[in-house]
Specification:
By secondary structure, the protein is mainly alpha-helical. It contains four helices and no strands. The termini are far apart.
């Protein structure tokens, strides 16, 4: 097995790990599980676009752009999931506060 095969398998493993972590709910409580794949996504994406993947000949440079774009797409997708999670969390807190206020008003009306 050549070093290019190992690099390819590492890229596939990174995508699989990324999908597993983001689809699970473990990153809600442990933020490092979210930020480590994010840093890897942005790093690998930029590296693939700027320097290219080793073993890919120059005439088919489009593969570097596709792989880099895939990792940058995962970065953007994960960021939208993070913002949706925080938006839902704030909405739950607002709803809880609203219910407490209504309960206090009803208690004072009695």
């Amino acid at each position: 097995m050549s070093q290019y095969d190992i690099i390819f398998m590492m890229l596939v493993a990174l995508i699989a790990i990324n999908q597993f972590i983001i689809r699970s709910k473990a990153w809600h409580d442990r933020q490092y599980l979210f930020w480590v794949p994010q840093i890897i996504n942005i790093s690998v994406g930029c590296y693939a676009i700027i320097f290219g993947l080793p073993g890919i000949p120059l005439p088919i440079d489009v593969i570097n752009w596709i792989v880099g774009g895939l990792f940058l797409y995962h970065f953007a997708q994960n960021q939208s999931k993070l913002s949706r999670y925080y938006r839902d969390l704030k909405e739950e807190e607002r709803e809880r506060a609203r219910e407490e206020i209504y309960a206090q008003i009803e208690k004072n009306d009695e």
